[in-house]
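Follow-up to my earlier ticket, as requested here are the two runs.
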Amino acid sequence: MRKAFIFLTIIFIGLFLASAAGEKTQDIEAKGAESKEIQGQKESQETLQFTAGGHVLGFRKGDMFIASSDHALRIEFVNSRPVSPREEGKSPDTENTSQAAKPLGKVSYRNLWEGVTLSYEKYRSGVVKSTYYIQPGGKNKVDPVDQIRLRYNVPLKVDKSGNLLASFETGQMKESRPVAWQEIRGRRVPVEASFRSLGKQEVGFRIGSYDPQHQLVIDPTLIWNTFMGSAGYDCGTAIAVDTSGNVYVTGYSGDWGTSPDPVNSHAGGTDAFAAKLDNSGARVWHTFMGGFASDNSYAIALDTGGNVYVAGESGAQWPPGDPKSEKTVNGHTGSGNLDIFAAKLDSSGTLMWNTFMGSLDSDTYPHLAVDIDGNVYVSGWSSAQWPPWTPPDTKSDKTVIGHAGGTDAFAAKLDSDGALVWNTFMGGTAADRANAIAVDTGGNIYVAGESGDWGTPVTGGEYAGGTSDAFAAKLDNNGAYQWHTFMGGAGSDLGTAIAVDTGGNIYVAGNTGDWGSPLNPHAGGQDAFVVKLDNNGAYQWHTFMGGTGSDLLRGIALNTGGNVYVAGSSRATWGTPLTAYAGGTYDAFAAQLNSSGTYQWHTFMGGTGSDLGQAIVVDTDTPPNVYVAGESNAWGSPVTGGAHAGGYDAFVAKLTETTEINIRQDTTDIPDGGSYDFGSQKINGDMDVTFTIENTADLNLTLTTPITITGTNADQFSVQQQPSSPVTSGGGSTTFDIRFSPTSLGAKTASISIANNDSDENPYDIDLTGTGKYELTITAGTGGTTDPTAAVYPYEAVTNEDITAIPDSGYRFWNWTGDASGTNNPVTVTMDSHKSVTANFSDMATKFVIINPADSTAGTATTVTVQAQCTDSSVDTLYNDDVTLVADGSATGGGLVNISSGVGTLSINDTVAETVNLSLSGGGGLDISSTQDVLFSPGAATQFVILDPADQTAGTATTVTVQAQDTNNNVDTSYDDDVTLAADGSATGGGLVDISSGVGTLSINDTVAETVNLS
């Protein structure tokens, strides 16, 4: 998983400071015996061997060494885990080399201490760079950093700058002060870091507080800075870099002495200088140019042949008799004022020619550009028309547009031998100054500066008023005016630098008050600005940089990717810099924008004095290196031989731009060399996980090849979606999907490798783990639960699992279905494949219910049904027991009802026509409150019955009742008809009896005392 990391980056500079005069300076020096001792130790242990910086590097379990033929440095990893070193990638020049001579690429010790991975990799400006990757998670117990303990084979010392010095008899090896940082969603957050002395020969690290949820990184990294100069005032004003990474700087200075000897010696006072530094910042040569007056150089450029061109101002002819004067194309005007000079040096610093340009008044602050044919273009300030010169020719003859008065901006072209081809002036009657010049591949010239109103500017680029406006102008290769435009507001606006890209777009930098609609708002005071124009001078965009103090831009450069780099100075901090503002009057700064003007990064350089950035250049490396020149009090840790000499020195600083690949899954960071666990996944199932690649640095991140999966179980993982490339700088992202599809039980391992152009994390490797599992799906039906609880369970090995069904109250276990059957409870399931088991439950009876019986006729039985019912009135078909049915009245047949499968019946009869109430008793604890009524109705009449009449005295009538009855002597109330009542003897009143509802009456009388028979 992508977790938080601290990157503690240590650079083995590999430059030795001689301990005594006359001793030979070497990269690393120690006794030869020590080298033999290290090479002879642990011979049986496997050693990875490489070369870097003129040394052999060996990596083993527990230690590493850096050695040459007669000295060696060994570093032991104290109390570390027994981790073998791993070669992470191959250096591009490793083909056809033996193991012992193999150039170093990258070697890692993964999890060397718990949560700590250490890597070593090739470093262009030294021998080797070590980086510690600190994983989070252990900080609540013991901070992983506290585990790191290194034991050296030589005495150690931490200098005032925080660098670690390893002392040998003849010199020292220096490891740069560690830096630690974090990337928190595109914002770089530095973390305080330093060496921690643990004894005479042991060291660890001390870091400040950090957020363990985010990866840590720094970019760009200050690789080296060096000072050049005397004890007086020395200023670096311009810088250039060749394709080999050599750096050329110019400026003005007092004498530097003779260490090393200059190509041409100092003439006195302030002289212009040029110097060449190699890629590591070491001085290759330097030379002075000038006479006894003041000579200042402000511009430098290179041609394809390695020649160096400088331009500046000079107060007098350079001394006669000196080799310089013999190579002067055109002499100084001798007016006592400053003239412009241009000079050409070969690749070793030897003067090839110099020439002067200017008027009898002051001509100052030149800048220059060189085209592919070696023609030189110079711009600057001039106070008057240029007079005739020697040899007999006139500058005025070659002037395209004449001087307009006051101070005018000028541009001039010299051929490759220094001869003037043409010159021209730009401006009006106010002060007009050209501060920068550039030339495109077609030979067109672009000038930037500051000016009052003049001419007819490009539409939309009119003069805005105020003290001055920044301006840009285009000339063709013959010096003919093409267009000009103004930039700025109502205050003072200065154009100080200009560059043109391959598409002909123009970028102007300077400082200004607020104006227009910028991409980034003005912060107050004087802010730095960058403006983009198209090739016709039409405005495209502008942006501001800076804080509430004064912010000045003096240099601009472009790289092949269209990014814009600027250098300048700030009086106070602003934004979120990569390196914090150090204080003092000014700090130098460098910044990058993309081609759309969007801010990418900025960084400060300097100490507590005044540090001014004057020029910037970018090389063609991938990623590019950025070089800044300026003037400074002492700061930082300059390279050997580049120590501060006092007062103000010229400085050169090299910054390395990088890409920075970060990978996360959701919100969890996964470091290079980290891992991601898919967990358990159903066999023959798929689990897709999306990962995000972020680029938090300054260059676009290129993913050079598709993601590949390797390892023991590579066939169990697959890339479902490849990431897109490039990933844009400054927080761009892309995603890729990995699928885990196990086909068998057990742990699976593989790894993915992401090839990219991040120099210290290429390839970016992530270990993948996952486990194939069988799944048991347990389901509980309505009315119960199971143990284990109903869910899906993984099984990573064949296992017998017992499952118990647990019915709820009012329910009973019924049976198992699925991959288990029957009624055994618990049931055992063998997990040798995917299984699914369901526990089924049924309701239990809670009551007896008498189902409403059918009514009947008296004497005819009716069937009564009794059910054992659940709470939802369903029949409990599992119930088998008895209950007693009670029938009241004359009914017969009540008694024990045998309940089987939840139902029982009993026959009830009653010869009496009546309603019989049915109820229950007993019931085994079930509810027996259920009752029902059964109506027994009389049957059809089968007989007339004369009810016994009351006896009576003779002469008094008595009532005789006749009923129509059924066979059970019940009155048939439905009968309506007549019957004749016959009375014998002397009785009277007999006759027809009207039967209604089964009953009729008739009165009988007899005056004779006798028994009367009725029929």
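Run two:
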Amino acid sequence: MLRNYLTVAFRNLLRYKVYSFINISGLALAIGCCLLIFLFVWNEWTYDTFHENADRIYRVYEKDDDALLSRFSAQIDISIGPVLEEQCADVEQAVRMVTDHEIIEHEGKPLGERQLFADPEILTAFSFPLAEGDPTTALKFPYSVVLTQETAKRYFGTENPLGKTIVIPFFYDEEFYDCTVTGIAEDIPKNSSIQFDILLPYEAIENVHPDIHRWGRRSLYVQLADGVEADNLEVQFPTFVKEQLKEHLEANTVSGSLHLQPLRDIHFGGMTNASTLFGGLKGNAAYPYILLGIGFLIVVLVIANFSNLAIAGVSTRAREIGVRKVLGADRRQLMRQFWMEAILTSAIALIFGLGLAELFLPAFNALMQRELEILYTRFDTLVAVLILPLSIGLIAGSYPAIFLSNLQPAKIVKDTLKIGGKSPFSRGLIALQFSLCIFLVIVMMGITRQLDFLKSKNLGMDAEQLVSLPVHGRELLDLFKNELAGQESIAGVAGAWPGPGPGAGAAPRNLLVEGEKIKVFKFWVDYDYLKTVGMELAAGRNFAREFSTDATEGVLINQTLADQLGWDHPVGRELKEIETSGQRHFRIIGVVEDFHFTSLRHSVSPAVLHLTDWENGHIFLTVKIRPGHIPVAMALLEETWSRLMSDEVFRYEFVDEEFDALYREEERWERIIRFAAGFAIFIACLGTFGLVSLAVARRTKEIGIRKVLGASVTDIVSLLSREFVILVIVANLFAWPAAYSAVQRWLQDFAYRIDLGPGIFVLGGVLTLAIVLLTVGTQAIKSALSNPVDALRYE
């Protein structure tokens, strides 16, 4: 019986080639898309689960309820790690980590390596197995080093690297250190929030920088004892901080409350300076659900298409169904037959869908910033590959199978069967398709408009042609200024810390104003900074060399801080800054217009600008390039860099690109939704094309008679298009409220956002209507131009 079902199914697929092509194309695209979505979702949901003790490992973070933006930070004073391990019985192991990216010269080529300095316990608490070496002793000595297999291959080829020496620079240090290879770690899984190429003992960086526990890119992880609940340990933290960390509390290095974040939550964690700290990719817990939602919509579209075409095509198979019933076929047999056709269609689509998934995987990886692979030997992949088409086939074939098996043979034989696109269910499916298309188009346009708004908004500075370069110390800054002064391509040069871009990170500080503590962000700048970056003064004056007190007590504040202070005339008023050593007094000499130094998701925060001499500190050289001179200016900067800082790789950032980079996630999802909208429209057009073709075939006699009676081409096109136009209008009524709600909810994450006017809703509906009319029109015009004699010849 199964063989008969398969034979008939194959024959029907070959007999109705156009509709088979439409169904297979739609299903193949759906399967390909859903497989890529599955890979992404599975990768996100299994982040960090490969660690054997993942359920007992937590990262310690600090919540400062009194800070700006309610700061959550994983970059705490990690020197508390050994104290936690020693004093808390619930903590089995504590692991301090500091990371950086360093350039290592190898055979004359600079190689960028991810360095991770960690306590030796990292190899026992975490599951980073060693292919060679002993995990209990690999990081025992200060200048030992563990390389990943890939890194070892880069430096030593096929040689055994154990015991060999590699020269490594430590960050923020001019010295190079001979380190002995004591272990080779298996390559780190891609879905790990902790990534490294080179693993070194924490003791090594602590010897070079004794205060690294407070200012490096750092985190503290703890492994709890078996059976200990994190909540129970968190309850003990306030007492622990007061009793065991009294010195840290007094020095303000531990100011907020300590909390524990599960290792498995780090990838999706939203706290600042956290998720990507150790090289792992930042995730968002909502994104897998959004992609699953898109995948669900795609499947719904394809199933709706399949069902509509099957029901609309009943007229072409009515006699077949009638004959089968007359010859004794019961309802269950007919249902099995139609299900077999649906499953066979899905199976064929699976082959093409896998090909499409492989074809688009590189582009999908680039879009999602992942390194996903389709591994057919993995159990979860095999399950997805087999279950997905089978499920789609069964669901897609269900309604047609039930509907077609219910047809009465008497009506079929008498040709009194009234079917096609007239049933409410069929019309509902078509309207649903159009609604989804309109919804996705409007959401895509809403995101696009918001992104355009963000990129065009005034930042309070002129970020165009503004370049930021990291240098060390006042002497280098002055040398650069002297070299670049008077150059035709350079409009201005200044120094600042942090730089004008959002990536450097301004430092939060406490001000004491009339007995009230106020949190502000602090910037250190020189005399030329405001002019170079294009900031405007709202009141008062800029820093000036003729006022000697500017260097010691003069400050500029931004308009937001001036408004927060509530002073009508802030210039000349005094501010007090709270420091670990006491208080410093400053006098306001000017107010600058608000400038953005973070994403426009947040409103402008209070800020203070100081003068500083930077004798030994890190500075961002800020260079303003004249319009049209970027190539010449960049060549000049690189040449000057190579003369003044020959031992360092030329590094720079365009400030406008740094701000644009803040919205990469939004741009990525705008492209994803654009693709989903295009896919939905394509599927809907395929289905509409098939439905119109069936309608033309079903109404050939009617169209012929109308033409004989004088109907014009416009009349025929209107006849075939009218119902689709009505369905698009109805679809708008459902799509608009849903799209408005979705876009409005997304916009709530931005302090600065567009107003949703009626324009994008009307445009979304009109675009969808135009595409539908174009699809319907091609078939309708072809039918209208046909010779009516051909339609009526055998009547």
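The only thing I checked on run two: The longest strand covers residues 91-106. Let me know what else you need.
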